[in-house]
């Protein structure tokens, strides 16, 4: 990945629907160059998709939190397969140290959060969890 790729990614992070023409103008390169770089990044797996950031309050999730998860040895991949199919889990990371996984949950209510945690804890191989509700965002979103 080169500097132009990084600049394209920064623009797409800011606005995933930005046109190739607009990117070319901002970066002072041709549309063909931008299109070629984007296609290469998609084919190589650097770009795996595009997303929407919700601004209208009624569409935003009201309750978010992180759950740190400890998984039985040799059960991590099976647990991950089940967790990625839970729509309430918006991010899932492997970690080192005491916890094996970190999952971000976004739901509409505390009741939904509670039921999601209950379902998560029933996943085969999950031994222990530690949950923290997110109260406010200071950077991002």
Task: Give the SSE layout.
Elements: H1 3-14, H2 20-27, H3 31-44, E1 63-71, H4 76-83, E2 89-94, E3 101-107, H5 110-121, E4 126-134
Antiparallel strand pairs: 1-3, 1-4, 2-3
Helix pairs in contact: 2-3
What can you see in these coordinates?
By secondary structure, the chain is an alpha+beta fold. The protein folds into two domains: 3-44, Arc Repressor Mutant, subunit A (Orthogonal Bundle), CATH 1.10.10; 57-134, Lrp/AsnC effector binding domain/regulation of amino acid metabolism (RAM) domain (Alpha-Beta Plaits, 2-Layer Sandwich), CATH 3.30.70. The chain contains five helices and four strands, in the order αααβαββαβ. A hairpin with a 6-residue loop joins strand 2 and strand 3. The chain is elongated, with a radius of gyration of 19 Å. The two termini are 26 Å apart. 13% of the residues are buried.
């Amino acid at each position: 990945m080169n500097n132009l790729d990084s600049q394209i990614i920064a623009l797409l992070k800011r606005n995933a629907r930005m046109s190739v023409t607009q990117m070319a103008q901002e970066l002072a390169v041709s549309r063909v160059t931008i299109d070629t770089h984007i296609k290469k990044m998609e084919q190589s797996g650097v770009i795996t998709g595009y997303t929407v950031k919700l601004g209208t309050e009624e569409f935003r999730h009201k309750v978010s939190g992180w759950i740190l998860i400890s998984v039985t040895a040799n059960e991590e991949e099976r647990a991950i397969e089940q967790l990625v199919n839970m729509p309430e889990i918006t991010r899932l990371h492997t970690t080192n140290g005491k916890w094996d996984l970190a999952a971000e949950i976004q739901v509409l209510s505390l009741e939904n959060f509670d039921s999601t945690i209950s379902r998560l804890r029933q996943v085969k191989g999950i031994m222990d969890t530690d949950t923290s509700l997110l109260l406010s965002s200071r950077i991002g979103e």
